Amino acid sequence: MTKKPLVGSVLLASMIWAFAIQTQGAGVDSTLWYTQPARSWEKEALPIGNGRLGGMIFGGIQREQIQFNENTLWIGDEHDTGAYQAFGDLFIDLGEGTPAATDYRRELDLSRAVHTVTYTQNGIHYRREYFVSHPAQVMALRLTADKAGAYSGTVRVTDTHQGKVAAEGNRLTVTGTLAGYKYEPKGPDYSIALAYEAQVLVLHDSGTLKTADGKITFERANSLTILLNAGTDFLNERGRGWRGENPHGRVTAQLQAAATASPKKLLSEHLADYQRLYDRVTLKLGESANDLPTDQRLLKHSNGARDPGLEALVFQYGRYLMISSSRDALPANLQGLWNNSIRPPWRSDYHTDVNVQMNYWMVDQANVSECFLPYAKWLNSIREVRKAETQQAFKTRGWTMHAENGAFGGSTWEWVESGSAWCMQNVWDHYAFTGDKEYLRQLAYPMMKEVCEFWIDRLKALPDGSLVAPNGYSPEHGPREDGVSHDQQLIWDLFNNTIEAADALGLDREFRDGLAARRDHLLAPKIGKWGQLQEWMVDRDDPKDTHRHLSHLVAVHPGRQITPLTTPALAKAARVSLNARGDTSTGWSTAWKINLWARLHDGDRAYKLMGNLVRLTGDTRMNYNDGGGLYANLFDTHPPFQIDGNFGYTAGICEMLLQSHAGAIHLLPALPKAWPTGKVTGLRARGNVLVDLEWRDGKLVKASLHTGQDGTYKIRRGDQETELQLKRGKTIVLK
Ligand code: FUC
């Protein structure tokens, strides 16, 4: 069947658009680029996404493959974590047996969130540009060439599950359901099935287009615009059974709207939306050139070459990945939202014994605060499920979770009772950074209060009156016993933050005072026999233990119970413990160590750990001890790929340049010698202060502070502290 192109007339104009934009934007350190197509999904393909819909691009010359995801495609239920699911693949076949291509380049420009593939074949210059628009809610692929009629081939789509694939006119449609699971009697349960749908629209300029064998075939087209959208009937509301409308209407309408907008408009809207977030922070850590493909550049860095531009690129990549994976529906999971499997590593879920918390450390500091909301909303939506199970297991009010968690509040494996308190730290910090009282009142405080109730009911008094978490757990490091430091520190943090939250809102005086009394009776951190910060109440830490979890150091980072300035002896003990854990580990553990050393004001050591992270690896086998590193596509590895290391790294650089957890805004608290001269703009400090910093020869030369609220702020530079009055909307420059 031949169909007329839907919006043929606008396409010629958009051909010009495709060529016009190629020279813009791409600053020296904002592009990942390669001279060959990707073969490996995990190590080489490049991610794009709009915070809900995402794709991994291979960039093949004769066959383009785009593996796509939608972040609500989950199996599982309120009893089981389930797993995040791969959606499908889009293939564009551009003819077998055509002559070899030259001048091949594929690149991802972080400053525009556009992926580009260019090559020359038969004397024709081909260009493909891909992005996922948040305003339009579609993935847009634009294929152009500098000669008319250059495109002949097919477009097809596959479903990772057993759904139906249909082709009609210029549209491919995938529909299906993922069955739920029944426990009594055991088996699939279609009454709670999740409905999903993906659609692909192929718009061509000139030539012909027809549909056969479930594919769309085009011949001699000047250019193509391929639009993809996908969705499910997932609804982030327990009260409505986690299911909303069938996705068909939404997916169709969004595609239709995108198909009638000009490609130029689609792109300019995407850029305006994306750059509003991305452009808030710039970072320059020194001079370096981007004249080598990113994989080679990374390899050189692994071998000790100086490349501060690459270090900044990986920082910005964390911000790019956050904007691309956490804007709607659900938070960033263990792989952000990119997943090509129905059995992904660790279910690509929400691990709450460090991983999801680490994902969100950077979000406010690195000034992409909006991306926090999917996480807060998800936590809010699973509360009732968690309360029911918590009540049953612990006979308490409030709620907590096991280590692994799914979209619907199902939580499995080991109970990690401190998990919910740790999530509440992210929830509090979002307020501490933004000063958003409505968020605090509506979303944050009610959750924090409930988690406090869990601990109020659960804490037990030792004979000397000190309060301990009974039968607690230092994640993945056992044994279970009373007064484990990780629990104690997180409860301290939770109570302390909730007291400040109640004060900020002027609420619950009595409750707040009760928390203060309990906080002050919590069994405090202890220094053990080799000068270490004890991981357990009993002084049994082994100085040879290099376990990847650093659970007893949460008081140093991301907490604030221990700091070099307020509790120097404990900070020294934390240093002893951190040294003993060593510098070799998994990706996320290395990222955490960067943050910890920064909080201990040791910039050179933090930088050394950064070096361990920014090094090329090709290892994809699961490794709990001495893995880490980045793949060629700069995905951080456990291994395998796990995104918390990317986000944790970005947080680590923020902590090296600016801290604000200990009562003062501390400028350049952990600047390494490796970055003698540099500049950062747009970092956020607690109290809603935006900070620009410039330094030369290791010394701060200029700082600008801009706040969204009136207030008195303490500013720390080296050993000096000054008090400043900041006025809403005004910028103060310190020289
Ligand atoms: C925690 C860690 C593992 C891994 C997993 C996803 O259980 O201990 O190392 O990161 O999460």
Question: Key terms for this structure?
Answer:
Glycosyltransferase; Immunoglobulin-like; Beta-galactosidase, Chain A, domain 5; 3 domains; globular; disordered N terminus; single chain; binds alpha-L-fucopyranose; alpha+beta; 9-stranded antiparallel beta sheet; 735 residues; 7-stranded antiparallel beta sheet
Distance between the termini: 70 Å
Unreliable stretches (pLDDT < 50, length at least 5) are: 1-28
What is the CATH topology classification name of the largest domain?
Glycosyltransferase
Q: Compute the gyration radius: what is it?
A: 26 Å
Outline the biggest β-sheet: 9 strands, antiparallel
List the quaternary state of the chains.
single chain
Number of domains: 3
- Overall shape: it is globular
Portion in beta strands: 25-35%
Mean pLDDT: 94
Structural class by secondary-structure content: alpha+beta
Give the helix tally.
Answer: 16
* Neighbour order of strands in the largest sheet: 1-8-9-10-11-18-15-14-13
CATH class of the largest domain, named Mainly Alpha
Bound molecules: alpha-L-fucopyranose
Judging by the overall fold, what is the CATH architecture of the largest domain? Alpha/alpha barrel
Number of strands: 32
The percent range for helix content is 25-40%
